[in-house]
Fold each of these.
Amino acid sequence: MDTIHDIVLFAAANRDLPPGQFERQVALIKTVMTYDPGTYSWHSRLRADVVAEHAGHVITTMFEAARLYGTTVTASVEPAEPAEPPPTAGHDAAPTATEPLR
């Protein structure tokens, strides 16, 4: 049986940017990941069942931030987390495929 893996992304903001560029860096990455202003970083897990086009968009955005703003980006592959059970009637929908790390 094959092991299923998730992609775990981490990005550290380039804090040496002028204020306007720093805010553009944050705005760009916030479109695909959750920002933690206390650590000036972003964390996300692309679950194994995520659509390839979405994963490609997230990763492309991250490396575009690295190119434009010098954001430090790392990606690693880790064993997949168990899938969330499907929601039952009357409960909130399941989380999206891109979730912040816990």
Note: The chain has one domain: 5-81+91-99.
Amino acid sequence: MQKVIIIFILLVMLCGCWDARPMKDVQLGILAAYDIDHGRYKNSILIPNIQKSGSGPTQPSPAFIYSANGNTPSEARKNLDNKLRNTYGPSQLDVVLFSEKLAKQNIYPYLDAFYRDPRMHLDAVLGLVRGDAAKLISTAPKSEVEKSEYVEGILESLVKTTELEEVNVDTINKYIYESGIDFVTPILKKTEKNDEVSYEGMAIFSDNKYSGVDIPPRLCTLSLLMRGIKGDRALITAKIRDNESQNPKNYTTIFVEKLKASMKVRPNGKNIHVYFNTKLIVDIEEYPADDFTLDDIPKVKKELEESLTHQAEEIFELTKEANGDIFGVGRTLHAFHNDIWKQLNWKEDFRKVQMHADIEVKVRTRGIYKK
């Protein structure tokens, strides 16, 4: 009897997965691009061609790009299969790029298959592209060995330096289905002269559509810090004066060592006031004016706070222009002031919200050079 039980347990443990697909039967796409082509949906994929080396381990060879059109994403993917030797496998997608034109529509219909198909990769990073998204997935400098890793590497680096938050198919799902909060994605552009990709800032979405308004790169770090998001490293360059003959002397660069951020929503009927308190402990990373002494710290601290407050006000104006509630003010109202929330038409009333920034800076060090 004991042998029968052991055999039964072994048989259960040796059962295969119901959804197993041998790697030899699929071709894995690493990057995907989605465009609008004459009113139809266009899906382009970059597939690395891995070949075995006669002398040892497998080595990469140039990647290939395939494209197909369809009325829906699934139809375009089916048409892609007709062009491939094996079935297209999206389970290893690392980056999903939308063209600017497509993103100005509601992007949910193009993401629907990701949430329904268990083989889809929900960790795939999302991004927007100025112009044709299909052209960007093949872009990489000659120094890059793997084209398939170039765009992904850029986006990962931006997250680490607090110039971008981590945005993937999974994380934006909560924004798509929830009212009172919008989201941002990176926006990229292929440079005209060099075969490179440039980061253009964060694209603001409103009601699941690209608003056409971006947070420029110089404001991205502060906008993330105000939301309590900080990567491994955070640098901000601030203009603290405008009376120097040499332009660099008007600026200073700070390294954010520690961060504490909060947002308080104070409604008075339909008059909504939002107070952002952001406390930064910083090191002076760069001070081109070269006249920074210990006695100057209070003055520089005040100049930094004024400059960063001005940047915060620019960010507020951009979100209102885009009508994109990236700070989640509406969600806070919905959760803690539901009676007022029910009286509002948020897509119209968001632009009337009064936002106030209180940024406190504590200068910890001024660098190792002492004058």
Note: The chain has two domains: 24-215, 216-371.
Amino acid sequence: MSGVELSRKFTATVADYFEDMKRDYRLSVNSSILNHYQLLNEDERPRFAALQIFSKLKQETSCPRQGCVPLVFDTPFFFVRESISRTLCVAEEAFLLGLQLYYKEMDISEVSLVDPQLYRDQRPWLLENFRETQEEYIRETVEYFRNEWVPKVVGIIDELVSPTAQYPQRSMERLMNYMMRLSLTMREQLEMVILLSTSGYRKLWEQYLPSEEKVPEHQGIHRQPLFTIQLTVADNEFVFVPSLETVESTVLGIYDHAIQSIKGIEDLQSRLTTVTNLLVSNEIYTLPPDEIRLVASRKKIKEILEYNFQPARKLQEDYQEYNDLAHLNIETFAELYIAAKHSLEDYEQTITTYLEVCLMIV
């Protein structure tokens, strides 16, 4: 469009434009592939969501630039708007801008306490590494809520109200309504964090649900076993390391820990000194562990674990016929066997028998 001669004079600029075009092209192709893949494969959506990868096809919630049209004092509708503004906090431009800032920079409605590493890293995991990684991720996320998220929201109100200024009672009532709106929004979003986290954790385990249809081979790491346990001999017994009980308590313990960790986050009333001189220590209410949806997700995870424990328990039962070998004191047995002065054929037969057993166990 600029002509050959002009392009030759500004080769660096033209090269930059070409690089931008190539980058935009690659991004658009990758985005189209991702959108297409997500639409066709429902099994991949939880993994993408855990990795914080979302489709651009999802329409973002529109945010209005202004709550009400400015009106002059003598307009008949003025008194109606005054009545509305007493209860509708977004009728004030400053409050509306504060809410816009919140949803732009402090929205946590899509935050999950499930570590994306559980989907990204190669499996199987060591049980202890699984527990430490997930608990560390929960701790860091909740610390962000306590030490950064809440102070940022408090900062919105602190910017609206000067600590030294005197405000009319009606203005303070509006501000209190606005604070309650923010407080309810924060509570709602914390509940969404819990529901999204518990749902995502349940879907992590639903990958190992029984299926009547034959599952085709999949190259993704999420089709690999999540843990590896070994059947070994300890204290003359065939036991799993780690035990099945330890696996269950660890998996369900992480689920319970995620729910409990959200408790105790301070509400706005505990941090605001510019709105009221009364220091009220409150915490944001969150969903209790006995909430019906949380109980249902926990029950589902436990059922999936029990289903996957069945082959392991069957294997442990099959090895019970070798209990005599597990309790065998090899030194005492060898002394008694040598003292019996068996023939060479007996020696060969005994060695052959134990080699066959060894091969069967291994």
Note: The first strand starts at residue 230 and ends at 234.
Amino acid sequence: MVESETPDKSFKEALVCFSTWYDDRSLIRKLKVLYQGYIGEADIHNASKTMDLMKHLTDSGDLSSKALTLLYDIIKATKQFAIVDKLRIYIPSFPDVKEWIILKFSHHYQKIMNLGNELIKDDVIKIDNVYNDPPKNYKDGLDLILHLQHKYIISEEKEKNDKFIETLTNIVIPRAVETPSM
């Protein structure tokens, strides 16, 4: 698909709309999991608002008024389809991303973001106690996933992920083990 160019002012307004939407719904941790490989680890860690992350993506050229694929992928991966109508105010040609095929995010990062969403508080506590002494008391599964990525316990390396899945199996976290392989 050839992307059409969006005027810079409209693009910037769309980014503000997008960032506000994701911040209002506390979705920044999902974005941080997905953006591994696009944004440096320190920049991901230090970002407190969605716009911080978007600035890194635009500064690197991964996202621009001429290249919107990453924005489509983010919405599809995070299932925030209701934002599309709001973004069409600024970018009238914005496609229906429900049927969009994700191009920019690896299958691995999508899977670990979904795993972070699936973990309940008891699961997070169990995993925390296995990997941390004393425990870190994570806010939720996504917070845990981000920290395990930082410690390279979870990565795109199959061996590391196999060890992590084995740990989840050993401490009996079925919803995590049932998640298709990372």
Note: The radius of gyration is 17 Å.
